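Same chain as my last thread, 540 residues:
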Amino acid sequence: MLNKITSAIGLNVSLGRSAHRKTAPFGFHGGLSLDTNKRALGDNTELCSIISINPPALLTIPLINYRKDSVAPKVQIHEKVKRGQALADNIVSPVSGVVEAIEHCEIIHPGGLRAPCVVIRNDRLDTPINTDTEYRNNKQEQQAVSHDNDNAEAQAKIAHFIAHSTTMLDQAALVGLGGAGFPTAQKLLSSNQDLQTLIINAAECEPEIACDEALMRSSSIQIAYGISALSQLTQCKRCVVAIEDTKTLAIESMRTALDTIDSTAELMIIPTRYPAGAESPLIQNVTGQFIPHNEKPINHGVICINVATTYALWQAINGQPMDSRVVSLGGAEMPNPCNVRVRFGTPVSYVLQQTGNAPADDTIRIRAGGPLSGFDLHSTNVPITAMTNCILAEAALCAPAAQPCIRCDDCADVCPAMLQPQQLYWYTQAAEHDKCEELQLDACIECGCCDLVCPASIKLTETFRFAKSNANYIKAQQQLADDAELRFLDRKNRLEQKEQARQLAIEQRKEKLRSQKKPDREKINAALNRIRSKRHTQKD
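reply #2:
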């Protein structure tokens, strides 16, 4: 059964005995040994160039953050924008041009979600918001700038960055390029605590995804300077660059680059085991610590930064905000697998056409993300974002139909988050959200390991992804209801206080009127006495 599933998605899986051990032979619990061949790298003896494509006439930039929450635009329709100009918090324009629309468009999402987006018509001038920055052309973008090899000048730039880190990070719009898209500024500026270990995540363990490896092999010196900047900014006691042992050319490139700039960063070669590149397994591999999903690594003295984000940081130090990323194009049905640098907002269909990878027929499935953690796209007219690291082309899915769970516990053996997927599956099917929360459904990293080993062919990852989304929706609705109840109670309290104040004012007015109508006995008696005295005088 496992062979049928893995062949359907184009993976070679080696379980062996280690996949069923309760111990952590690879530094973390569970995981799988997968095919390490990555089509996007091509011939491993080459430098592995990264193709740059010109941005399209129209770019669609989603106005959402890493939590998929909408953010307010800072531009208006028909407004002229420059490359690098802020469109919203932590989002910059990838080109110069005119804002043609601000509307809801479909984005890369397993459910075909529509979100508010800024649509920009490209004027093809790439006029920068920072007049001191001259954007290099496509062929030069992946090459080192002339001053990169001048260590003294580079260190001067790093010193300037550290002195103005808050402003520069805000302008650069840096987010994590490992897939989560968490704001880098928020992560780095919270590291003023006692940071023990800074981990540069260069593992990239999932099949087909090769964008980080290609970047390390082509731009290692820029990455090394970015690592130096991070080390000095965070003042970490230890900086570790973690790379899987199968990336031999990337390892040599990074070792040479770190030696060239006399970096104190430690190059750690970790065993190849999926999902070693996920944050929690990587921290366990490097430090031996297991950090619960509901706790931040910074609270344990650890920060993880993706190697591509490190490269983007060095670009930002040189005046270029994050407006593009490297995307791997792979999959069994991809005619020309490669790594390509793409501006954010570029449609997936345009990327495939420009690289000669347009689908031959409608049976080809286009997926976003890796073969395990990714999902099929409803449409290719969706924009590339910072969280898009891979686009796959695969044949029509021929996986067997799901059967009832047999409680074999294989899914629990390979789960790197140490969950009980079979139990979670039952509770998600029964919509028992409290039980799912009790079993820590939120800790699921959606790696897909449980799918590969399930003999019943149950789509566990898809089920958990939907259940997490549904649980978040329910929590959001409950929060809205709670907020509405608080507003109602506040209004009720205000009305009651207003009514009490009104009644008090009425009573005060009544009391005043009563006091005004109450006769003054002393005055009356004095008047009577005067009358009596006058009458008595007249008689006399």
